[in-house]
Amino acid sequence: MNTDFSTNFVRSPAALREHPALVLNADFRPLSYFPLSLWPWQEAVKAAWLDRVQIIAEYDVTVRSPSTEIRLPSVVVLRDYVKPARMAAFTRFNLFLRDEFTCQYCGSRGEMTFDHVVPRSRGGRTTWENVVASCSPCNLRKGNKTLKQSGMRLRQPAMRPSPEQLQNVGRKFPPNFLHDSWLDYLYWDAELDA
Ligand SMILES: [Zn+2]
C-alpha cells in the first residue's frame, strides 16, 4: 500500500470544496489533523468501490449514473492501517506548524517568514535546527547577525519535531482555521532545500 497517503490531500484543493470525505485511518483517527485529511468525493467513492475504505457516514446528497445511484460519503475509514511517517518532512508548512505560526523571537502571530538563526552568510544551514518562524520586523532586526550579536532570544530551541509532536500541534487548530497568508503553504508540500 502507498504509505505516503498525506500527499493525496494536497493535489486538487479545488475539488475539495464540495462534499469532501473525512479520511480516517483504520484506528478511526484522522489520517492527518492539520491539514485535515480530506478526499474529494470522487476519490472516496472510488476507494469505497475498490473496497479500500469503509463508508461510515454519508451526505444527504446523491449522484446518479445511468445504472446506479449513490450517496456521497462524508466519512470513510481505511481498511488497512497506514503507519505514520517516521520522520516529519522538512517543509515550510511543517516548520510553521512546529512553531505554531508564532514568531520565535517576539511571539507575535500573523504573517510569518523564515529566519536562519545562524545566518546563511555565516554558514548557517537550512535545517530544522537552524530555521525558525519569524515576523518580518524581527527578521529585519536580526539581519545577518548571530543571536548573540543581535541580543535577541529564541522562545524555544529549534529542533526537529517527531511526527507525533506535529500532530499534537495540529490538533490545537480547528479544521477551518485558515489564515489568508497560510493558504499558499497549506497546499504546498515540497521539501525545503537542505
Ligand atoms: Zn517577531
Give a description of the structure.
This protein has 2 domains: about 70 residues, no CATH class; about 100 residues, DNA Binding (I), subunit A (Orthogonal Bundle). It contains 6 helices and 6 strands, in the order ββαββαββαααα. A 4-stranded mixed β-sheet has the order 2-1-4-3, covered by helices on one side. Strands 5-6 form a two-stranded antiparallel sheet. The structure holds zinc ion. InterPro entries: HNH (IPR002711), HNH_nuc (IPR003615), NA-targeting_endonuclease (IPR052892). One of its GO terms (molecular function) is zinc ion binding. This is HNH endonuclease.
Give the structure's gist in a few sentences.
One of its GO terms (molecular function) is endonuclease activity. The strands form two sheets. This protein has a four-stranded mixed sheet, with helices on one face. Strands 5-6 form a two-stranded antiparallel sheet.
Topology summary:
Elements: E1 21-24, E2 38-39, H1 41-49, E3 53-64, E4 69-78, H2 92-98, E5 113-116, E6 131-134, H3 136-142, H4 147-150, H5 163-171, H6 183-186
Question: What are the salient characteristics of this protein?
Answer:
194 residues; alpha+beta; DNA Binding (I), subunit A; 2 domains; four-stranded mixed sheet; two-stranded antiparallel ribbon; 6 helices; 6 strands; disordered N terminus; binds zinc ion
